[in-house]
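Q: I'm building a small set of examples for a reading group on sequence design. Run inverse folding on the following structure and report the sequence directly after it, with nothing in between.
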């Protein structure tokens, strides 16, 4: 171990920053967050530092560095761009046994600054021993993504009940088991979801019950349109902690691969006209699993509340007193639009967008065609591939010009994405000549014309970056 990681208490301790530029400003802000008494030594000051002085938050010594300024100082940071000054600070501080850091100069450091993930009171410091601050920042970004903001609140909750738990469980192992259950379970989830009062009430109840009953919960999660990068942080976290994954056909393998490896997976997929598990059975399955104390991830394509029957599933859960939470996902319209370069609204083309189901019932589609066939509006049809001809005919007969552009986006956001464009009167030819597979989304409106243009920009950017 080259350096010992420690967390230093600087509250009300005197700290010195030598230098008055941008870097010094950042360091001053950091020290102020740790409630240190900060003095800045520099003949000149950047605007933001001057503001801190005027607000009385830091003290300014308007001089060049002199070792006498180190008197009573606990920690010093040299942030000047003058090598000699930085060296002088380092040697003077070392001689006095003061912790010293010279920014971006590992050799002149008595301590080094880590990349920080702050979920106070939880703090994580990442260091590569100065080998690569950029790598430390990348690691930090990864940790930021997996450690929810709510961890700080969770730690505060634990702190609040610590004594009670010690009093309730005299045995250390029992205490550890108890906290493991709580921190990996529903109470932690309530805290992450900002439901602090409920979390406290349940924790208090769990302490008096002795931590025996594990209550199940259902996470209704939007898995997005296919590309796993489009999952939310919350979706990923819950996917990795659920004991059971109940998923359907729209969930891509890449997304499913991100669920907990040892979780039990149940496929309840639906094909058009071939509902492999009836909706009522899925609803009941979720209730039964949760009542067995399982944490159930109900993973749905896109967003659960957009043509996802998410509403029906939570109704049954609520009626049966099962805890649940809903995690939004990127719906197919947003994913397809972004990945195909077709904005859904555009100042010059469309001031409204409407999402509608093109699902055929008894061979017809009972939609308000008059409201759909409006100018300056984009229409997105989900589940419309089979009814495409009816869609085009109806839109034309309700007033949309037959030249209105239309796009079909197949398997959007996946490596198999294909985009077909045409007009309301030509698109059926495309259907006949190409083998178009579900899931496919349909976008109607003049915004579709932007596809060529924006894709051209994209390929141009790729050429500029040497990617093609
Ligand atoms: N809840 C989902 C929609 C389910 S309805 C969501 O919010 O996206 C199923 C329809 O969604 C499909 O018939 C298709 O029209 C569309 N769809 C879902 N994923 C898609 C994808 N990756 N590419 C294109 N269309 C998709």
């Amino acid at each position: 171990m080259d350096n010992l990681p420690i967390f230093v208490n600087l509250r009300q301790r005197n700290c010195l920053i030598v230098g008055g530029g941008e870097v010094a400003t950042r360091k001053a802000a950091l020290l102020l967050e740790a409630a240190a008494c900060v003095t800045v030594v520099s003949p000149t000051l950047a605007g933001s530092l001057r503001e801190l002085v005027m607000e009385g938050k830091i003290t300014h010594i308007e001089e060049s560095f002199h070792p006498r300024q180190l008197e009573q100082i606990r920690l010093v940071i040299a942030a000047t761009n003058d090598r000699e000054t930085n060296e002088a600070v380092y040697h003077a501080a070392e001689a006095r046994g003061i912790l010293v850091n010279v920014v971006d100069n590992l050799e002149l450091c008595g301590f080094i600054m880590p990349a920080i993930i702050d979920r106070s009171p939880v703090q994580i410091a990442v260091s590569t021993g100065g080998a690569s601050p950029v790598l430390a920042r990348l690691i930090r970004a990864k940790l930021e993504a997996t450690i929810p903001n709510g961890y700080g609140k969770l730690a505060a909750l634990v702190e609040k009940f610590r004594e009670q738990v010690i009093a309730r469980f005299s045995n250390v192992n029992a205490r550890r088991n108890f906290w493991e259950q709580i921190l990996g379970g529903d109470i932690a989830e309530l805290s992450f979801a900002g439901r602090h009062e409920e979390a406290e009430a349940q924790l208090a109840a769990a302490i008096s019950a002795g931590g025996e009953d594990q209550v199940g919960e259902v996470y209704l999660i939007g898995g997005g349109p296919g590309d796993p990068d489009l999952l939310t942080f919350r979706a990923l976290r819950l996917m990795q902690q659920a004991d059971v994954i109940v998923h359907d056909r729209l969930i891509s393998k890449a997304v499913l691969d991100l669920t907990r490896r040892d979780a039990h997976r149940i496929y309840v997929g639906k094909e058009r006209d071939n509902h492999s598990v009836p909706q009522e059975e899925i609803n009941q399955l979720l209730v039964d699993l949760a009542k067995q104390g399982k944490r159930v991830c109900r993973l749905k394509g896109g967003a659960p509340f957009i043509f996802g029957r998410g509403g029906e599933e939570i109704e049954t859960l609520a009626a049966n007193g099962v805890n649940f939470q809903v995690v939004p996902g990127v719906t197919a319209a947003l994913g397809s639009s972004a990945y195909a370069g077709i904005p859904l609204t555009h100042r010059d083309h469309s001031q409204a967008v409407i999402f509608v189901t093109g699902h055929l019932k008894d061979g017809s589609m009972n939609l308000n065609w008059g409201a759909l066939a409006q100018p300056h509006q984009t229409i997105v049809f989900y589940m419309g591939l089979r009814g495409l001809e009816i869609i085009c005919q109806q839109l034309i007969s309700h007033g949309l010009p037959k030249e209105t552009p239309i796009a079909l986006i197949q398997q959007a956001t996946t490596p198999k994405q294909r985009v077909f464009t045409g007009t309301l009167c030509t698109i059926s030819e495309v259907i006949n000549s190409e083998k178009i597979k579900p899931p496919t989304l349909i976008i109607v409106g003049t915004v579709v014309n932007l596809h060529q243009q924006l894709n051209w920009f994209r390929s141009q950017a790729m050429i500029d970056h040497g990617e093609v």
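The chain has four domains: 14-113, 150-209, 217-330, 333-456.
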